[in-house]
Design a protein that fits this description.
The chain is of the alpha+beta class and about 500 residues long. The protein has 10 helices and 12 strands. Helix 2 (about 60-90) runs parallel beside helix 5 (about 190-205), helix 2 packs antiparallel against helix 9 and helix 3 (about 100-115) packs antiparallel against helix 4 (about 120-185). It starts with a helix and ends with a helix.
Length: about 500
């Protein structure tokens, strides 16, 4: 080996070692960065010796696609479960102690006691008190349910704003990738940033990607709607100021196409947006319809029809206000939801002490003398109370939109309502565990394939150190040879 050759080799060793150590140092510095893909310096040999050909990313496109998909479905499922948990919390703790079913049971127990001792005004007062608890429970649950819908609507607005901001950043980074690729510059940092943005986008809306010339990436939603192609497509949404049972929330539009809500407890939602729409427009409204039917059922069961049952039914113990706040006396039509009636049901003031008296419930006559059933005036009369008690398990027709319309009576319907909610939440919980586990395994596989292993990087540093030492020894040898030549010449 000539001196010139030796010097060239040593210079190549120092250059390569410097580049390799720089790459390894960057890998180690980003070991905890989930969006960083490990780099490696590719060394090739040729006529000029060993040189660094390029810095490559340990990219794994199939695993990245799987990560994006798993992130979308896990985000959608978690969002739905959170909404169902909020609705469940309206019913109290683990025993659902303030659910309509439990409140009706408590009310009926007091009604039984009053019927067995109809001359006890204290027992009558207890019946009215638990009736008020029942009506107030329906009012509170219905009002808070609409607040949950409003919160979901607000979150949709926030997610849409976030999605638009992410797409704007995606455009800028995608342009950096294209420019770097076209000019032959290092695009690795921009590629990392673009993949990180893609992960965040997938948590909001289901997305698929396609890479074309110059590393240009195009994004589509899971339904095939263009989300990004050269420039972001418009994602629009108009928030609603307030919600009641009859309010229909506005849709989310991507490139002019409405985003569909998720379906079922094991939701089809990909990303938080579809799940939020499902909570706002499907789950909460169905549960609201069940509350409304329970309220309508109570009004129907306790309606007054007079001593022979032939008079026009009028609201009795339970009555309601219309949407304008005016108290009504007409009993709602059978089998048809009265939207929002659960938030407007209340106990008739005529039976509420001290201004009113529970005797009106026992004897009839809430709607006047013509509706009095206890015409003898006996204080131990209990026939009407027994009739009301039996009517709680009497046949009623419910609206099919409640999804539990096959319930035979009001008590069964109230119990089925909680069963419907718990079944949906149970399915959502099991699905959330499955989808979260899948996401965890996918992230682990992706990290194992593309992430940084400190052990590997430290081992590589030792190899680079040995290479550097070899270069220093070669330089020392060249120096000794040069010195020997100078000594001979002198």
């Amino acid at each position: 080996m000539s001196l010139a050759s030796a010097l060239s080799t040593a210079q190549s060793i120092f250059t390569n070692s410097g580049t390799q150590s720089g790459v390894v140092s960057k890998n180690i510095a980003n070991a905890q960065n989930p969006d960083y893909v490990r780099r490696s310096a590719v060394v090739v040999t040729g006529g000029n010796g060993a040189v660094i050909d390029e810095i490559v990313r340990a990219q794994n496109s199939p695993l990245l696609r799987q990560t994006i998909e798993s992130s979308s479905v896990a985000s959608g499922q978690a969002t739905l479960l959170a909404g169902l948990t909020e609705i469940k919390n309206l019913m109290g703790g683990n025993d659902n102690e303030i659910s309509p079913a439990k409140l009706i049971t408590a009310f009926r127990n007091n009604l039984d006691a009053f019927a067995s001792k109809a001359n006890d005004t204290g027992l009558g007062g207890a019946v009215i008190s638990t009736a008020q608890d029942l009506a107030n429970g329906l009012n509170t649950a219905a009002d808070k349910l609409q607040q949950i819908r409003k919160d979901a609507d607000d979150q949709i607005k926030q997610d849409v704003d976030t999605l638009n901001a992410l797409l704007a950043k995606f455009e800028a980074v995608n342009n950096q990738v294209k420019n770097a690729t076209a000019s032959g510059a290092d695009a690795n940092d921009a590629l990392d940033e673009r993949d990180g943005l893609l992960k965040k986008i997938s948590e909001i809306v289901g997305v698929t990607s396609y890479v074309r010339g110059d590393n240009d990436m195009v994004l589509y939603t899971s339904a095939g709607v263009t989300l990004f192609e050269a420039v972001p497509r418009k994602v629009t949404f108009q928030a609603t100021a307030a919600f009641d049972a009859s309010t229909v929330g506005n849709g989310v539009y991507i490139d002019g196409v409405a985003l569909k809500p998720g379906v079922s407890g094991n939701t089809t939602a990909k990303g938080s947006l579809q799940a939020l729409i499902q909570v706002r427009d499907t789950v909460a409204p169905i549960f609201q319809s069940q509350l409304d039917e329970i309220a309508r059922g109570l009004i129907t069961v306790f309606a007054e029809t007079g001593p022979t049952g032939a008079l026009v039914p009028q609201t009795g113990l339970f009555t309601y206000r219309d949407s304008a706040g005016v108290q009504q006396t007409a009993v709602p039509a059978a089998g048809t939801i009265v939207s929002g009636i659960a938030s407007r049901i209340f106990v008739n003031p005529i039976v509420v002490p001290p201004a009113g008296t529970p005797d009106k419930l026992r004897d009839g006559g809430i709607n006047g003398v013509a509706y009095v059933v206890n015409t003898s005036g006996g204080s131990s009369y209990a026939d009407l109370l027994d009739k009301y008690n039996e009517s709680l398990e009497g046949p009623l027709t419910f609206d099919t939109n409640t999804e539990i319309a096959d319930a035979p009576d009001l008590l069964s319907f109230a119990a089925d309502s909680m069963g419907w909610l718990e079944q949906l939440r149970s399915t959502a919980t099991a699905s959330d565990e499955t989808k979260t586990a899948l996401l965890t395994r996918t992230l682990e596989a992706y990290s194992s394939s593309t992430g940084v292993s400190l052990d590997e990087e430290l081992s590589l540093l030792l190899d680079i150190e040995q290479s550097y030492k070899a270069g220093t020894k070669l330089m020392a040898t060249v120096d000794e040879m040069m010195q020997a030549l100078l000594d001979i010449a002198s």
